Amino acid sequence: MIVLDKFSIGVGDRFARQAKAQLQACIFAGKAGVEVIPVWNKSNREHTIIGSEPASVRAAADAAVAQLGWKLPYFCDADHINLSTVDRFLPACDFFTIDVADFIGIAADPVSVDQFVKRHTELLGAIPLHGSDGTIEIAPALLRGTAAKFLFAIQEAGKIYRRIEEAKGKDSFVAEISMDETDSAQTPAELLILLAAIADEAIPIQTIAPKFSGRFNKGVDYVGDAAQFGRELALDMAALGHAVRTYGLPSNLKLSIHSGSDKFSIYPAIHAAMRQFSAGVHLKTAGTTWLEEVIGLAEAGGDGLALAKALYAEAFAHAEELSAPYATVIDIDPAKLPAPREVDHWASSQFTGALRHNPKCSSYNPSFRQLLHVGFKVAAKQGNRFLDLLDANREVVARNVAENLSARHIVPVFLGRSAS
Ligand SMILES: [Zn+2]
Question: Where are the beta strands (DSSP E) in 154-237?
Answer without folding.
Answer: 174-178, 207-209
